Amino acid sequence: xxxxxxxxxxxxxxxxxxxxxxxxxxxxxxxxxxxxxxxxxxxxxxxxxxxxxxxxxxxxxxxxxxxxxxxxxxxxxxxxxxxxxxxxxxxxxxxxxxxxxxxxxxxxxxxxxxxxxxxxxxxxxxxxxxxxxxxxxxxxxxxxxxxxxxxxxxxxxxxxxxxxxxxxxxxxxxxxxxxxxxxxxxxxxxxxxxxxxxxxxxxxxxxxxxxxxxxxxxxxxxxxxxxxxxxxxxxxxxxxxxxxxxxxxxxxxxxxxxxxxxxxxxxxxxxxxxxxxxxxxxxxxxxxxxxxxxxxxxxxxxxxxxxxxxxxxxxxxxxxxxxxxxxxxxxxxxxxxxxxxxxxxxxxxxxxxxxxxxxxxxxxxxxxxxxxxxxxxxxxxxxxxxxxxxxxxxxxxxxxxxxxxxxxxxxxxxxxxxxxxxxxxxxxxxxxxxxxxxxxxxxxxxxxxxxxxxxxxxxxxxxxxxxxxxxxxxxxxxxxxxxxxxxxxxxxxxxxxxxxxxxxxxxxxxxxxxxxxxxxxxxxxxxxxxxxxxxxxxxxxxx
Length: 543
Hints:
The chain has helices at 2-17, 33-43, 53-69, 76-79, 109-116, 209-212, 255-276, 278-286, 309-317, 329-333, 342-346, 351-354, 356-373, 387-396, 422-425, 432-439, 465-479, 533-539; strands at 81-89, 133-141, 147-155, 161-170, 180-196, 199-204, 217-226, 229-234, 239-244, 295-298, 322-324, 379-384, 404-410, 449-455, 458-459, 485-486, 501-505, 524-525. It is an alpha+beta fold. Strands 1-2-3-4-5-7-8-9 form an 8-stranded antiparallel barrel. It has a 6-stranded parallel beta sheet with strand order 11-10-12-13-14-17, sandwiched between helices. Strands 15-16 form a two-stranded antiparallel ribbon. A hairpin with a 2-residue loop joins strand 5 and strand 6.
């Protein structure tokens, strides 16, 4: 009994008599994917640019070990998905040594010279090391018609953000080695995020890929694909180390919106091309089954059919044939004939003498409408911005007596600046708006329904970013009050008229493109404006 008791006591006390120690972590396998990830993350925060030669050498050794463990070359399906770039390793020197500078400077003439002569990697890699770059992502979509996007998220001053998007198509090459992804760069854009009204400004990437021929083609040989790690070597010898992005919160900044921006620009270009071609527009209208009342669309200043392709498509989808007043750059340039004239300096311009080309374009659009829809067809005018008071002048001068039933004005500045103010003396319209208001006030034509559509989206001021600043600068001369609310260009109160119906929107910006005197279409992708699908139905019943 005592012996048995002693044995029990000994077994109880034995663990306490042993020295305390935590369970050791399992040793990392030499050359494990996590070991490479840890090395890159601990040694560099700029995607490899500041790696020391020793760290680069260690990374290459780990990659070589992982290559030896790769069971077989991966397929396109294996590497499909979203990947975040951890590091780039520039090609080694001919003697097998690493340079002290693991980067290709973007602003270096030698970098671009080597790239264009096929002697070195793209200098775009130099952007990857910038402290303003928050993330670099690659999205691979497999299949014969697959593609992959390269996205670089860039932080800008004042809290703004941008991205460079380079889109490539998958190229099928006969005899291509296993594990190789051959691609051809097709297009590129710098995207400035939410410049105005929630819209992204897409600026073309200044490289003519279509003219580069074979030099626009490249490939990636994926040499390592283990766990969430991927290592690929490009055709210029650069090694790219990626980590798979499984957590959408770590994904590239608003990649989805950038993708939609590119799709918006491409779809918009297609719609615009159709709308600009007269015969194509006629065909689109003829294809509408059981058409509703046709719409004559009156563009904003320095705008034309090229800027309203998406709105035309939405109206037609709802059953309304659309005929756009065909304003061109050359027609808008005819405004210059008034500059320096006595009526210009005295602020007494008249619509008939100043915007006669616009009035003629409305008349021509109505003639096209009636030729297609029949002489007795009724129609509505939908006018954007200053197109609204020009349409008022056209109606007041006797236009549309043969069938116009409504005028819907989108963000039209109908009210003059405050009487007696300095802004009245500096009248931007040089008397045009005052002339229209005096001769054709309010709902002048009793046989036509007038509707003013305004928005309260943006309050002017110095704390609302670019939207607020632009609004302040626009509201002040138009209405005398810079901190008013409006659509970012026209103050809401300045767009209303006595005796007219009024629709007040809460979230519509003034436009989804940037009007300009160069005749170039500059879309604001994803912008919310009067013609957006989510805003359109608020005023379409007035047509």
